[in-house]
Structure formats: structure tokens, C-alpha cells
Amino acid sequence: MSSTVNNHGSRHPAPEPGAAGGTGRDGSNGGLKKIVSASMAGTVVEWYDFFLFASAAALVFGTQFFPQTGNALDGVIAAFLTYAVGFVARPLGGIVFGHLGDKLGRKHTLQLTIILIGVATVLMGCLPTIHQIGYLAPVLLVVLRFVQGLALGGEWGGAVLLVAEHSPNESRGFWSSWPQAAVPVGNLLATLVLFVMSAVLSQEAFLAWGWRVAFWLSAVVVVVGYFIRTRISEAPIFEEAKREVEQTQAVSYGLGEVVRKYPRGILTAMGLRVAENILYYIVVSFSIVYLGHIKLDTQRILGLLAIAHVAHFVFVPLAGRLSDIVGRRPLYLAGAALGATWGFFAFPMFSTGHDVAIVAAIMIGLAFHALMYAGQPALMAEMFPTRMRYSGVSLDEADRAERERASA
């Protein structure tokens, strides 16, 4: 396969037959929008579930699923160790579902991952506590968290590729940024549910059953997402690549081939995620810790964070459109340079204690992050040929999960 340099400044395999993708199987813009909706549905579910588990680990799981030692922090630490199990499972999920996605197709693989994520999350909301079944409670929580992480490892790569492979070349950055924009939507939904439940219920009611409602609500999004995914088709470029492999009776497929033939592409994709991940976790996660340190109450922090998530949802597709105009690389570099300055002005803004200054600082940081984040699906899709693309992108997701687990 020949190599070309695209107008976005990245070297990638020359366009394959049908690589222009376009507007879905039906040839209409509506067909592409349906593909985008299907991809976003799963991404919303995954980040709703992950953010929800992280919040519940801090607020609920320490007292409900782990023995009390007299020190409240011991239960919280144990709960966060359970949270880390999901990061251990994600690399395995990326490898397994990445290979399945290249061999069997994006659609069926994504249907499987969204069911696994949803079932695991709903069952978490049904688990008896340690006071009811003893140490079996944390064991079951760990098992469900592992299943959740396994499915999540294969979800992201398939979701963004499903859109990227249906998108026209000239607007691939914009369309494939929409699954990325679903991340703040999932975080927003989890934040709002927890905010409402903590506001309307007493502390006793919230710990007894209120937290479970947030987990059960995951089923609604899963059902909608699965239904949408049953109504989409594989991209013509993927089907053509699959036929070509079958006709030539190629024995190398997906994971092994991409590692052997495109090690530089894998390393480049991994490198793209490092700085972007660091910036996101500083802006969101560390900000929460810092704001708690300066004595802001939980509901106030959640409310400000919800506003920032809405802004992030707007920023990402705008940055995706911009990546089609100015190129992926210049936009990414601009976001990285601006992101390096964020801490110097953000934390003094936090220290003022004023809501406007605090939410403005978080929003600015997420705007910088969007510049680095929005164009990544298109850029990574252009790095690998179709028949091994899911594996290539999912290997990057596996590496990202390992970094997140190490930082946790």
C-alpha cells in the first residue's frame, strides 16, 4: 500500500477504494447522522458509567461494600482500588474487541460492548451490601467492574471508527469529533443525577437506596443505544476491505498485522494521547480535589462542573470542524501549547472562591483540551488501513488505560 501526506500534515496509507466514505449506506446526510447517533450513544453510556462509579466510590462504596475500621478513609481507598480494576481490564478489552472489530465488523462488536457495559452497571445497582451478604459483596463489585472495564476497552475505538469510515474526507474531522463530544455528555448526565439525588434525599436515604437509582438509569441509555445500533450498517470501505482479505485468503488480520507493519503508527497514536490525557485529568479530576481542599461544598462543585461539561460538549465539534480547515496537527500543537499555560492562571482563579472565575477557569482548560482531542479519531483512522484499523486504534486505548491506572 502506498503512502501519501494528506492536507492535515500526517502521513498515512493512501486512500483505499471507497475511502471517501461519504454519508452512510443510503447516501444521505441523514444516514451519516444516524451513524453518529449510534456511536455517541455508546460513548455516553461508557462515560456515564465510569464517572458514576468514580463518584460512588468516593461517596457510597466505602461504607456499603467494605468493612469499617474506624477510619472513614480506609473504605474510600478500598473503593478506589476497586475503581482501578476497570483500568486493568481495559487493555484486555481493547485487544480482544479490537481484533473482533476488524474481523467480524464494527457494528456487531459495538452492540456487544454496549450490552456488557449496561448490564454490568445495572447489576451494580442491585448488589447487596457487605452488611447483607458479607465479603461476597466487594467480590461481586470487583467482578462487575472488571466486565465493565473489559467492554469499555473495545467501545471507544469502534465508536469513533464507525463514524470516521462513513465520513467524507473533507469533513471527517467534524463528524468523527461527535463521539468525542459524547464524553462530556456522559459526565454531565452522571453529575446531574448525583446532584439531584443528593439534593432531594437525606444522607440516610441516599446511602440506603438513592445511589442505586443512578446505576439503574444506565439501562435507559443502553436500550436506546442498542436499538440505534441495530439500524446501522457497516461502512462500505470496511466491507470492501473484508472482501478483499477473503478473496486473497490473507492469513494476517488485525492485531498481529498492525503491530508488525505499523509500529510507528501505534507509537504516534499513543503519543498523541499522553499530553491530552494529562491536561484533561488536571482540568477535571485535580480541579475537584483542589476545590474540595479550599472548602467548596460537594453540590457547588458538581454544579460548576456540570456547566463546564456543557461548554466542553460545544467546544469539541467546533474544534473538529476547525481541524478540517487548518489541519489536525496545527490544531493539536496549538492546544498543547495553550494547555501548558493553564495551571499558571487557573489555580489563582480557583483561589478567588468566586463561581464565575472557577467555572471560567475550567471551561478555558476544556477548550484547550478540545483542540487536542477533537481531531484524534480522524487522525488515527488515517494512520492505519481499514482491515487492521480497529486493532490499531484500540491498542492506543489500551495504552491510555494503562497510563490512567498508573496515575490513579
Description:
This protein is mainly alpha-helical and 408 residues long. It has a single domain (20-407), classed as MFS general substrate transporter like domains (Growth Hormone, Chain: A, Up-down Bundle). Helices cover 79% and strands 1% of the residues. The chain contains 18 helices and two strands. It has helices spanning 29-64, 72-104, 106-124, 130-133, 136-164, 172-176, 178-200, 203-216, 218-230, 236-248, 255-261, 263-293, 298-326, 328-339, 342-351, 355-373, 376-381, 389-407; strands spanning 3-5, 11-13. The model is unreliable at 1-27 and 401-408 (pLDDT under 50).
Mean pLDDT: 75
Major sheet size, sense and barrel closure: 2 strands, antiparallel
What's the number of domains?
1
C-alpha termini separation: 41 Å
CATH superfamily label: MFS general substrate transporter like domains
Q: Which structural class best describes the helix and strand composition?
A: mainly alpha
| Low-confidence sequence ranges | 1-27, 401-408
**What is the share of helical residues?**
over 70%
Radius of gyration, rounded? 21 Å
- Portion in beta strands: under 5%
Keywords:
408 residues; mainly alpha; Growth Hormone, Chain: A; two-stranded antiparallel sheet; 2 strands; disordered N terminus; disordered C terminus
